[in-house]
Design a protein that fits this description.
CATH topology of the largest domain: TIM Barrel
Low-confidence stretches: 120-132
Number of strands: 18
Strand order of the largest sheet: 4-5-6-11-12-13-15-16
Radius of gyration: 22 Å
Distance between the termini: 51 Å
Number of helices: 16
Number of domains: 2
Shape: globular
Strand content: 15-25%
Mean pLDDT: 89
CATH class of the largest domain: Alpha Beta
CATH architecture of the largest domain: Alpha-Beta Barrel
Largest sheet: 8 strands, parallel, barrel
Structural class: alpha/beta
Amino acid sequence: MKVFNFKIEKKLPNALGRVGAITTPHGVIETPSFVVVGTKGTVKSLTPEQLKELGTPVVLANTYHLYLQPGDELIRDAGGLHKFMNWDGPMMTDSGGFQVFSLGVAYGKELSKVVSVTDPSLLIPERSTAEDGAPRLATIGNDGVSFRSHIDGSLHYITPEKSIEIQHNLGADIIFAFDECTSPTESDRYQDEALSRTHAWAKRSLIEHKKREEIKETSSAILFERSSDEGDGSGARPSQKEQQILSQNTFPQALFGIVQGGRSEILRRKSAKIIGEMDFDGFGIGGSFAKEDMSSAVRWVNEELPEEKPRHLLGIGEPEDLFRGVENGVDLFDCVGPTRIARNGTMFTKGGKINILNAKFIRDFSSIDEGCKCNTCTNYTRSYLSHLFRAKEMLGATLASIHNVYFITNLVKEMRQSILEDRFFEYKEEFLGKYHS
């Protein structure tokens, strides 16, 4: 049974941007849309009920972290991640591929999803797949990646098949193929080598996913038929265990393939063509990016990918980057940024970011962002937030996160509306003009 669907409603003139809608088993995602990250099955400092009040369209959880704690099989037996965390809306899980980057070449270094390549301290020397002496918790092989748990140091081996198995146990509406996320400062030789692995892993992920979908569909049909049977006393009705299986993750899941390729236009377009020809339901644009050419890399990819399928830009959430992504054909974004910076006292405003710990806010009795309709801005002042953070009260992180999630979520919703009303470029210029002031 095919539940996943993507429909384009309107295109941005003279650009790749578009407005659409993704239908999933747990609801419709209007695109472009911002995906709020709940790494361990929770968006830090916020309840699922608060997320619903904020109008959060979709949540993304982290496969690697949930595999380690509490374990994907436990979540499966609890009825899937939706039931486990009490979230009834659309949900995504990543593949664990980003941990190849964060626990590998980036481990112990100041490397993030977006870096400036003008910083020479971030440059990585030419190397092969062999160890180069740098400390790391992930080691890459052609079949998969061995991880050292950041929790207890235990050794784990993740293959494309294992990643898909974990994600099927978690039961998100949209899951991702296993990939190798590389640093933008890697050489083209290594990027090409990693790209071959990512493409091979994509094929294996797709094969495993289809196999599990077929098993799921067949098992569900048999159990449903037996559970509907009045029975003739012969004991044909499902056992209690079978009934439990029937109530778990029996809905179809969509699989997105991930495009890599680093900073190289040749490799990015090559990857987009190869991944785009595979039978995925949608696509992720992965890898870490150089700030100087991220929008170009996104454009290269989306010029090659099939237009009729959705595209997700992984791990990006700054306002400027969101505008560039939407303009260049991105439908979905996810990022931990809004809640991460909120816990440090940094909040978005239409006039740029502010740090509420600055002394000037101690006696500032205005709202965080004038005109914002979130619960934080309508009920609390900058002075009160300043007090909470200075006093190290937990409520500070909650109120700041409420505002930041609302701000970014609604910023992308406004972009969507501006495309519908043929005023996207005017809105972009107006917003960024104020934001950078």
